[in-house]
């Protein structure tokens, strides 16, 4: 089976609504809101784009017949809802131009939407330009996926030069670039390195949802690296790690988002928008196109309700919500010297 098709099947098979670190953060309920549902504005803006909703469909597919069908459906969903989307890694189409249409279909269905192309770290500026030109992408995501490559039987084994190529691309590409993880999260050291190289937007994509070490282990004959299945920092921890960089850089979050409440939690920790992959793929494959559009619309309504409940009229105001973090997360913050009381009366339970 084609690798992308295997990833789709395994991501779907492993998808379940398990507990993750979003459950380790709680909002403090206050009885007075001084807000009304119709005063609430859930829009967001970053990298020069404005969005109707503070969440997006993250990079997943392309490169096979099945992936083309999924990209087509994501294109239709995006046109219907106005949501930002990204294709899966276009590395395959750069090597095999006959696969280009499996990505271009998303643009064909959604000619005026905001769509990001996606490539792996280590590719050249020239390849990045070709990726963007493939379907007139509005921006480029560059993914970093060291644990996945190491567990992937046919994965890369030499990781020199990733930061150099990222710097070359962000300096000269001419469209906005997001550097993203793929579900392993980011440390403050990683974000600092990216900022030094001129990166202006980062998707911390943390652990807690889709695990690409679990997926790659399932593709191995022997699953001897299954001890890496939970590798990485959760999305909540990655956002806490990002606190000091949030004024200099657009921080986006993804990884383990199961419901609208998780989106609001990520926004309250400073994400400008929140990406969803596994939950959308599962909804699409289990319930189909119409139900996926309905889920996005339902989340928009739930966000309005949650902003009202928290007494916040805009997405930007969410960073002033009062939150409580569990002992485990607080311990991480203390060990790493992270002040999680930056924005509001934030404490631990
Ligand atoms: C089937 C599948 C394929 C993916 N392919 C890519 C990819 O090509 N490039 C990429 O940057 N991330 C890829 N991802 C990772 C997601 O963009 C996201 O970072 C990760 O799945 C964590 O989010 P989640 O827990 O909501 O799934 C893929 C995810 C899934 C489920």
UniProtKB/TrEMBL annotation:
GO terms for cellular component: cytoplasm. It is found in: Cytoplasm. Its cofactor is NADPH; FMN; Mg(2+). Involved in the biosynthesis of isoprenoids. Catalyzes the 1,3-allylic rearrangement of the homoallylic substrate isopentenyl (IPP) to its allylic isomer, dimethylallyl diphosphate (DMAPP). Keywords: Cytoplasm, Flavoprotein, FMN, Isomerase, Isoprene biosynthesis, Magnesium, Metal-binding, NADP. It catalyses: isopentenyl diphosphate = dimethylallyl diphosphate. Mg(2+) binds at residue 149. The keyword Metal-binding applies. It holds the Pfam family FMN_dh. NCBIfam families: IPP_isom_2. InterPro entries: Aldolase_TIM, FMN-dep_DH, IPdP_isomerase. Homooctamer. Dimer of tetramers. This is Isopentenyl-diphosphate delta-isomerase. Substrate binds at residues 3-4, 148. Residues 164-320 form the FMN-dependent dehydrogenase domain. HAMAP family: Idi_2. The lineage of its organism: Bacteria, Bacillati, Bacillota, Bacilli, Lactobacillales. Belongs to the IPP isomerase type 2 family. One of its GO terms (molecular function) is FMN binding. Its EC number is 5.3.3.2. FMN binds at residues 59-61, 89, 118, 180, 205, 210, 256-258, 277-278. One of its GO terms (biological process) is isoprenoid biosynthetic process.
């Amino acid at each position: 089976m084609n690798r992308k098709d295997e990833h789709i099947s395994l991501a779907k098979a492993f998808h379940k609504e398990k507990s993750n670190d979003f459950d380790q953060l709680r909002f403090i309920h206050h009885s007075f809101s001084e807000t009304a549902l119709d005063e609430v504005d859930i829009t967001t803006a970053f990298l020069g784009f404005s969005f109707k909703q503070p969440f997006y469909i993250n990079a997943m597919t392309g490169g096979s017949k099945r992936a083309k069908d999924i990209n087509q459906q994501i294109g239709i969903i995006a046109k219907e809802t106005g949501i930002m989307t990204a294709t899966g890694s276009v590395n395959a189409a750069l090597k095999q131009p006959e696969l280009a249409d499996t990505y271009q279909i998303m643009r064909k269905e959604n000619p005026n939407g905001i769509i990001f192309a996606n490539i792996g770290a280590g590719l050249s500026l020239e390849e990045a330009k070709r990726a963007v030109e493939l379907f007139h992408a509005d921006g480029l995501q560059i993914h970093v996926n060291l644990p996945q490559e190491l567990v992937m039987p046919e994965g890369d084994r030499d990781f020199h030069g990733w930061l150099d190529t990222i710097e070359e691309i962000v300096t000269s590409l001419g469209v906005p670039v997001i550097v993203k993880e793929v579900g392993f999260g980011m440390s403050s050291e990683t974000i600092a390195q990216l900022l030094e190289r001129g990166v202006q937007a980062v998707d911390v994509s943390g652990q807690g949802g889709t695990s690409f070490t679990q997926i790659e282990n399932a593709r191995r004959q022997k699953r001897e690296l299954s001890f890496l299945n939970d590798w990485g920092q959760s999305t909540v921890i990655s956002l806490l790690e990002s606190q000091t960089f949030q004024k200099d850089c657009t921080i986006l979050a993804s990884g383990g988002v199961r419901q609208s409440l998780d989106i609001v939690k990520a926004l309250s920790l400073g994400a400008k928008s929140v990406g969803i992959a596994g939950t959308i793929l599962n909804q699409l494959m289990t319930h189909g196109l119409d139900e996926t559009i309905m889920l996005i619309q339902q989340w928009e309504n739930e966000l309005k309700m949650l902003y009202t409940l928290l007494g916040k009229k805009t997405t930007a105001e969410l960073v002033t919500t009062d939150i409580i973090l569990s002992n485990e997360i607080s311990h991480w913050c203390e060990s790493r010297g992270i002040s999680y009381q930056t924005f509001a009366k934030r404490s631990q339970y």
